[in-house]
Amino acid sequence: MGKPTGFMDYKREVSRDAEPKERIKNFREFHEHLPLERQRLQGARCMECGVPFCQSGMNLCGMTSGCPLHNLVPEWNDLVYTGNWEQAYSRLTKTNSFPEFTSRVCPALCEAACTCNLVGEPVATKENEYAIIEYAYEKGYADPRPPKVRTGKKVAVVGSGPSGLAAADQLNKRGHSVTVFERSDRIGGLLMYGIPNMKLEKPVVERKVRVMEAEGVRFVTNADVGKEIKAEKLLSEFDRVILACGSSNPRDINAPGRDAKGIYFAVDFLKANTKSLLDSDFADKKFVDTKGKNVVIIGGGDTGNDCVGTSIRHGCKSVTQIEMMPKAPDTRAENNPWPEWPKICKTDYGQEEAIALFGHDPRIYESTVKEFVKDKNGNLKAVKIVKLSWEKDPETGRMKMSEIAGSEKTLPAEIVLIAAGFLGSQKYVTDAFKVEVNERTNVKTAQGQYATSVKNVFAAGDMHRGQSLVVWAIREGREAARAVDESLMGYTNLMIQ
Description:
This protein has helices spanning 6-9, 20-23, 36-44, 73-82, 85-95, 99-105, 109-112, 125-139, 162-174, 190-194, 202-214, 231-237, 266-280, 302-313, 349-358, 427-433, 462-465, 470-489, and strands at residues 16-17, 31-32, 58-60, 63-65, 154-158, 177-181, 218-220, 240-243, 263-265, 294-298, 318-322, 363-364, 367-374, 380-392, 399-403, 409-412, 415-418, 457-459. By secondary structure, the protein is an alpha/beta fold. The protein folds into 3 domains: 6-139, Fumarate Reductase Iron-sulfur Protein, Chain B, domain 2; 154-248 and 423-489, FAD/NAD(P)-binding domain, CATH 3.50.50; 263-418, FAD/NAD(P)-binding domain, CATH 3.50.50.60.
């Protein structure tokens, strides 16, 4: 431990965000990070606990507490404080393939489980991670390091999201020849087109892709495996195949008027927005323009919040976010003690911007869509919503909802964005490889394993576990790589902490 009293001597300090009314003028990241010397003091706040819950990644009461990657948090926090940046980078990347991504988009499960939460504020671990990786790129620690020996084995990875990239990175480091197939025009999957630019600027993704290319990973874009590229071709040309195509089927809303013009899935809205931004700075007009429109977003999660922020940046007239669940408490409930994940109300950047611009929180809780109202031309003009009541079923013990009579309300809306989650993998891919799927249409494997029902075919990420966090996708990709390596070589030296 660099400074035993650091958590008492120094207050938590994090990056400063640009003011909401300023940052909505563009699609750039909006955090002003601390200079290194001040960031080092944040490393001093780490208590280096005897039992570091921050790196535990345990399941407590149905939710993850601590880092799923089991990052060696106390070690590199101490190394940040002592200024040993190269060693800090080495310890960070021992468990995390992509700290440049997680330090930007991870909800910081490590900080929620930090022991400092018992008496104050957690260590600024996420921003320490950011400082480590950005300093590593600046000083050359993160430069390409191709493997010195090749095994002669070939692996195909289908999908270039965080799980696919993590698997490819690990297998390439082992010396296997890896080719990544991506159906979109750019590498990155969710990282490129699912997460808006203001949360993760795309040059950050492209920077890492360039490093991986220089290390020997081959990337093929506009390659839709299962359609243009047959599964049989990959199985014949490669020793192993990893399916990492994500959980890509959006959950729909079945209500009268669903066929109205102006209703979009959030994933399509966000992808079109980012692609138009990258291709032409919106000059091509190939995006859903919310300027001057009343926007209603169905779904209260991270994707819904991203839709709020994106709609505001295009100049929407109003934005409303519909959430089925009740509002979470502002502080921990007695039945939700540390180190459980705190089940509290989170006001994210998009909601902050809506409050600053329109004067109120955009979220309406315990409500659902009753009807999409069309005009005579079939265009969406309004959304009817109804309040919900939640009660525990005495027989099953589960919560069930029912509509509250007379609580209907009509909201003006020219655009609706459905951000209600995802239902599993896409059928044409699983059918092409003839792999078994479970009741949620995720690719089926034995518990805790990654080999599918088809010989030499493995699965990882959201396609395997269902919709989840980027950090879980990285974990799955690394574990799948280890399983593939062992199947190829009879043993493996790929590290999983």
